[in-house]
Amino acid sequence: MLSKRIIPCLDVRAGRVTKGVAFANNVDVGDPVTMARYYYEQGADEIVFYDITASNERRGIMLEVVEKVAREIFIPFTVGGGLRTLQDLRAVLLAGAEKVSIDSGAVRNPGLISEGARAFGSQCVVLSMQVARREPGARLPSGYEVVIDGGRLPTGLDALEWARRGQELGAGELCVNSIDRDGTNLGYELELTRRIAEAASVPVIASGGAGAPEHLLAVFNQAGADAAIVASMVHYGRYGLPELKRFLRQNGVEVREPFWPQRSLS
């Protein structure tokens, strides 16, 4: 059985970690470098870093912050926000990321997924999807729509169809974030996650809504997610990563033990 992963998410705006509800009313949470190091030492399986206004502002990602974070952690590190070209992906990987997360750029140019997979390998390419619930119909048969530019621009893309296409184009993972649940602490969108996990043959990362250990248990056991992103529940100190892993382990979910390699003395 493959271990389930817990992934703290750092939503960064103007060089600071921020958190809101349904992509609005964001408040300052802390310094991304300090927080990444803390979660690494707590036993995070990975860290995700999103420059959340880069796409909407049509600018490049803050590479200097990415470089600083990468120097502090020794676990997989995924970076996204404002990535529009193969050169953008290369720059993020050279700055220290192990994976790139593409979202708005992939919707505007689906070929970016296949270009990235050919250049760097599918294991480096995560297709991130911001998804909102809609009334099911001919245009959106699943009842879920992909929204881009930080949740600002509806696309008309059916989320389930876009997940299938992204995988076909070469994405090695799918990260599914529910805009409706984001920051609410009410639990993940289980129906959305389950339907995409059943349709996909690559790992699916659930995002949006985690507020209690039981929410992680549900998204793993009921929705079939391979990994779960956590944010406000750990940012505000309500739960620690060791506590979450202990709860999951006690309830039969395989999770990884923390591993901290020694720093080089040079």
Q: Can you give a write-up of this model?
A:
- The structure is a single chain.
- With 266 residues, the protein is of the alpha/beta class.
- The chain has a single domain (5-250), classed as TIM Barrel.
- Helix content is 33%, strand content 26%.
- It contains ten helices and twelve strands.
- An eight-stranded parallel β-barrel has the order 1-4-5-6-7-10-11-12, surrounded by six helices.
- Helix 6 packs parallel to helix 7.
Layout: helices, strands, pairs:
Elements: E1 5-13, E2 16-21, E3 24-30, H1 32-42, E4 47-51, H2 63-70, E5 77-80, H3 86-94, E6 99-102, H4 104-108, H5 111-120, E7 125-133, E8 144-148, E9 153-158, H6 159-169, E10 173-178, H7 190-199, E11 204-207, H8 213-221, E12 227-230, H9 232-235, H10 241-250
Parallel strand pairs: 1-4, 1-12, 4-5, 5-6, 6-7, 7-10, 10-11, 11-12
Antiparallel strand pairs: 1-2, 2-3, 7-8, 8-9
Helix pairs in contact: 6-7
Q: Count helical runs.
A: 10
Per CATH, which architecture? Alpha-Beta Barrel
How far apart the termini lie comes to 38 Å
Basic shape: globular
How confident is the prediction overall: mean pLDDT? 90
Strand content: 25-35%
- What characterizes the major β-sheet? 8 strands, parallel, barrel
CATH class value: Alpha Beta
Structural class: alpha/beta
CATH superfamily: Aldolase class I
- Runs with pLDDT <50, length 5+? 261-266
DSSP strand tally: 12
What attributes does this structure have?
globular; about 270 residues; disordered C terminus; alpha/beta; about 35% helix; 10 helices; eight-stranded parallel β-barrel; TIM Barrel
